[in-house]
Structures are given as structure tokens and as C-alpha cells.
Amino acid sequence: MLFRLPNLLTLSRIAVIPLLLASFYLPGEASSWVPLGLFIAAGVTDFFDGYLARRNKQTSNLGRFLDPVADKLLVSAAILFLVGVDRIQDWSLIPAVIILCREIMVSGLREYLAELRVGMPVSRLAKWKTAAQIFALCFLLGGPAVQESFDAMLIGHLLLWVAGILTMWTGYDYLRLGLQHMMADEGN
Predict the structure, then answer these.
(1) How much helix, strand and coil, in percent to the nearest 5, is found in the chain?
(2) pLDDT digits over 68-119, tens only?
(3) Contact indicator for 23, 30 with CB cutoff of 8 Å
(4) Rounded to the nearest 5 degrees, what angle is found at the Cα of 10, between the Cα atoms of 160 and 108?
(5) Which of 19, 21, 28 is nearest to 145 (CA)?
(6) CA angle 32, 38, 43 (to 5 degrees)
(7) pLDDT < 70 regions, the chain
(8) Which parts of 24-92 fold into alpha helices (H)?
(9) Which helix (DSSP H) or strand (DSSP E) does residue 130 occupy?
(10) Of 19, 15, 33, 18, which is closest to residue 144 (Cα–Cα)?
């Protein structure tokens, strides 16, 4: 089961994290283009692992567990790396921290609700949040290489704020759902 193609694609998103880190230290514009390429390639695997699992009827509990973990690890690592190389700094640290905190909170909520056998479906707004995060990270990863053509870093920071706002909104929705189940549990 672990060595089925969908799970291998998911695991590749985790395996790319050290390469992503190392690529920030490449000389010149390669320190922007290579991390961007790795991040985009990882994003492509995110699409194909789910698509292939459904098409080939290879969905599994392992895959359902690994997929969101790989996504959260990749996004969190990218944010931390971007902070470490000063591409996210000053006021933009606020949405970055909000995103990281929400990911931890939602993971904890999912774990708690799983014990109650309560699912937490992904909302449409959460999908928009994810899209804003991904685009923000892409602009921030590749930004310095195209800075003379257009201000990709500014676009990345603006999208990071959009993602931060959507993150707070969807985080509140998930927390509200989780609290309803926690309070109902207290009443028993």
C-alpha cells in the first residue's frame, strides 16, 4: 500500500523539503528559480496523487492521512524558509504566523474530531485560502529573479495577507465546528 504510486507522489512532497531548503543557498537567480520549480512540481504531485488514487481505486486510510500532512509540511517549511532568507519579514510575518498557527489548530481539531468519528470537510473558502497561499508562496519563492520585470515580491506579500485573512476566517469556521462537538461532548 505504501508503495502505490499515489502514496509515493504524496511522500515525494515530504522528500522535496530538504531539497527546497538547500536550493535557497544556490548562487544568483538559481536561489529563486530552483525553489519555485520544486514547489510547483510538488504542487503538481498534490493534484496527481488524489486523481490517480481515485481513478485507480487506490484510495486508502494511509493516503487520506498522508496527503494533508504532506501539504501542511510543505507549506509550513516554505514559509519558514522564506522567513529565514528575509523574503517574509516585518508586517508580513503576521499572516505567516496566522497561517502556521491555523495549520496546527486544524490538525489538532481533526485529530480530536476523528476520535469522535466526526469528519471535517474542506470548505470552498478553505480551497480559496489554499490557492491564495500557494500563489503567494510561488511569487515569494520566485520573486527576486523577476524583480526587474515586475514587483513579484509585492504581489506575494499582498497575496500572503489575503491568505492570512482567509486563514483566520476558515480557522474560525473550523474552530466553531470543533467547539460545537466539544460542548456537546461536555453535556453528556
Answers:
(1) 80, 0, 20
(2) 888 889 999 999 999 999 999 999 999 999 999 988 888 788 777 777 777 7
(3) yes
(4) 60
(5) 28
(6) 125
(7) 1-2, 120-121, 185-188
(8) 30-55, 61-84
(9) helix 124-146
(10) 33
